[in-house]
Write a structure and sequence with these properties.
Layout (H helix, E strand, L loop, with lengths): L2 H31 L2 E2 L11 E2 L2 H24 L2 H6 L3 H26 L3 H17 L10 H22 L5 H18 L11 H19 L8 H16 L18 H12 L1 H16 L12 H7 L4 H24 L4 H20 L16 H10 L2 H22 L6 H24 L15 H23 L7 H35 L6 E6 L3 H12 L6 E7 L9 E2 L2 E4 L1 H5 L8 E4 L6 H8 L8 E3 L18
Parallel strand pairs: 3-4, 3-7, 4-6, 7-8
Antiparallel strand pairs: 1-2, 5-6
Length: about 650
């Protein structure tokens, strides 16, 4: 390591320590002067918690960035250079520092006096103007006005997204640390000629150290909240660091050829910050359906929905950490393998879409019955649910991703320009053919969340018909050109079948995982149940107990069966044993025995129940048809 690297390491340690002790001091002052936020109906925390954590760690960040500016100025540029033509990266760093100071002040004032949303938006635009004015603009379209508008939208969107993500202990700070770490990794991979001006590495490390000192106090269970003084400033800084600019060596996008540079200029930053964007999008859409303002506080964020599925708060936060880390990994792969950018983004986007649709069905907040939904809500509901347009949009993503993936697998990630042109020519025909075949096969007449083995023939017919029709149309329109590969369509069909069936089965898989988590996470407080009979009826009874909210007081601990071929195996993840084997197990409470099959007599169950010191209760599962009413003339009840 060079002397400069040692200095940077010492700086990071110093910033972390300053942030750690600054946050601890604010925690003590908050307790003394009652700077606390009380529990509210639209907030998640359940006890008074110290506020103004941003005041504790922002000075560490500010001083660290100032030190980086001074050191960079002394080692790389002369006073004459600074006076005549200030380096672009230095100017952007100064603009980012001033903008962060403005956002910190606005957030602190909002914590104290509650600013109006319009006032905060105006201040966010002013802070963004500082960075944009120094040339920090997305290099996308080449049209200055469009690029500037995209940059303004980026700053405002990310700043508010991070602010909204600050809804559970350690969530916003942890996700921001992961995103900043990804930015540092992307900046390290920049070409050598950009390393002289790329300051994102020391700036990002200082930012991470300042947030790390605060995260120690903010991780679950949090002893202090950052407040808007922290969330607004870290959202602004993160947005500035993620804009491809001389500050980060344009994230290496300049090395990408073939016209992919402008696309990656937006895809890579969006992937880095996928979780704040995902959470804000989910909240905005679901609140719009409920005719609720997106800016209004609520307990309907992605983290709250994960808790509603049965996860603990800590596990819910770590699930979002994992998704943020996955987004950072995809961003690094996009930089290193730009030719595979579309399948990579399609794969990650598919995960987020499926997760968002699944979480959107979780009920965590009761709608206000007095609030009238807007006129367009029934139309949107009809389009998305009754017409299955959402499934068709998802299948369109799957078709495009699988088609590109098939070409990558067939040609080992590369291909001649003629092959790439053939792929682009065939894509619209493939999408239209596959969607038409799926529709004719009856895929969109089924229920996505209740897919079963009986639905597989429809999916196989739809995929086979779509591949055959698309290949026929491609051959007809291309007049038999040799640039089209038949093997690509075979690979494409296999990938598409796996993707379509897997996407629909994913909901059932998530249901099983989350409901099992909900069933067993607090099993010590529940009534243990042994199901007598490990056949189809036993599985039916197990699923009823796991998925029925009215049976949450019970937990299935195992199956009892007299068939030696089944003993020692598992059904639905729980063991199957003989009755005497269960008697040898340590029991805190006497279990109940539930008979699942008509082939098992009451006598068999009672013989087992009588062997416990306290006789076990015995129940039997019965399915019966009840006569309700029938107004047809001449029909009498038997």
């Amino acid at each position: 390591m060079s002397t400069r690297d040692y200095v940077l390491v010492l700086l990071v340690i110093a910033v972390f320590c300053l942030s750690f002790f600054g946050t601890r001091m604010m925690h003590r002052l908050a307790g003394r002067y009652q700077w606390v936020v009380l529990p509210r109906a639209d907030r998640w925390h359940k006890k008074p918690t110290a506020l103004h954590g941003g005041v504790g760690f922002y000075p560490a960040f500010f001083l660290g960035i100032c030190w980086v500016l001074v050191q960079t100025f002394e080692t790389q540029w002369s006073i004459q250079d600074m006076l005549t033509s200030p380096p672009h990266a230095m100017s952007l760093t100064a603009a980012m520092l001033l903008g962060s100071l403005l956002m910190f002040g606005v957030g602190l004032w909002d914590d104290l006096k509650q600013l109006r949303p319009a006032t905060k938006l105006l201040c966010q635009l002013v802070a963004a103007s500082l960075f944009v004015g120094m040339g920090g603009v997305f290099p996308m379209t080449g049209i200055v006005t469009c690029d500037i508008l995209v940059t303004y939208f980026w700053f405002v969107g990310i700043t508010n997204a991070v602010n909204m993500l600050d809804n559970m202990d350690g969530l916003a700070s942890g996700v921001t640390i992961l995103a900043a770490t990804t930015v540092v990794m992307l900046a390290i991979q920049t070409p050598p000629e950009a390393s002289r001006s790329a300051l994102a590495v020391p700036l990002g490390l200082v930012f991470i150290a300042a947030l790390g000192g605060f995260w120690v106090h903010n991780r679950p269970p949090a002893s202090i909240f950052m407040g808007d003084s922290g969330s607004l400033f870290i959202g602004y800084v993160l947005a500035a660091l993620a804009v491809p600019s001389p500050l980060n060596g344009f994230m290496g996008i300049g090395m990408v050829g073939g016209g992919l540079g402008p696309v990656l200029a937006l895809l890579i930053p969006a992937t880095v910050l996928a979780i704040p964007i995902f959470d804000t999008t989910l909240v905005t859409i679901t609140r719009a359906w409920r005719a609720q303002k997106a800016s209004q506080g609520g307990r309907d964020h992605s983290s709250h929905r994960l808790v509603g599925l049965g996860l603990s708060e800590k596990k819910a936060v770590w699930v979002l950490y994992a998704l943020a880390a996955l987004g950072g990994t995809v961003a690094v792969l996009l930089q290193r393998f730009p030719d595979q950018s579309l399948p990579l983004c399609g794969f990650f986007g598919l995960i987020l879409v499926l997760t968002g649709v699944y979480l959107g069905h979780v009920k965590v907040q009761i709608a206000n019955p007095g609030r009238v939904p807007p006129a367009w809500t029934p139309l949107v509901t009809t389009i998305l649910y009754k017409r299955h347009a959402a499934e068709m949009l998802l299948d369109t993503m799957l078709i495009i991703t699988c088609f590109y993936g098939a070409y990558l697998l067939r040609f080992d990630g590369a291909g001649s320009p003629l092959i790439m042109q053939a792929k682009i020519h065939a894509l619209p025909l493939v999408v239209a053919s596959c969607l038409l075949a799926d529709f004719l096969a009856g895929i969109y007449r089924g229920q996505w969340r209740l897919i079963s083995v009986a639905d597989l023939p429809h999916h196989i017919a739809g995929v086979c018909g779509g591949v055959a029709l698309s290949l026929a149309l491609v051959m007809l329109t291309s007049h038999g050109e040799s640039s089209h590969s038949y093997s690509v369509y075979v690979i494409f069909g296999l990938l598409l079948l796996l993707a379509q069936v897997g996407s629909r089965l994913s909901f059932r898989l998530l249901d099983a995982l989350f409901f099992r988590q909900r069933a067993y996470v607090t099993s010590a407080d529940k009534i243990p149940v042994l199901i007598y009979g490990a056949g189809k009826a036993g599985k039916l009874l197990h699923d009823e107990v796991v998925f029925n909210p009215q049976m949450r007081a019970h937990v299935i601990v195992g199956f009892v069966d007299d068939d030696t071929k089944r003993v020692g195996r598992k059904l639905c993840g729980v063991p199957i044993q003989h009755g005497p084997e269960w008697l040898r197990q340590p029991w805190h409470h006497t279990p109940e025995i539930w008979i699942s099959s008509q082939l098992i007599s009451d006598k068999q169950a009672h013989q087992l129940a009588n062997q416990w010191p306290e006789k076990a209760a015995v129940r039997r599962l019965k399915l019966q048809m009840e006569f309700v009413s029938d107004d047809r003339p001449g029909l009498t009840q038997a």
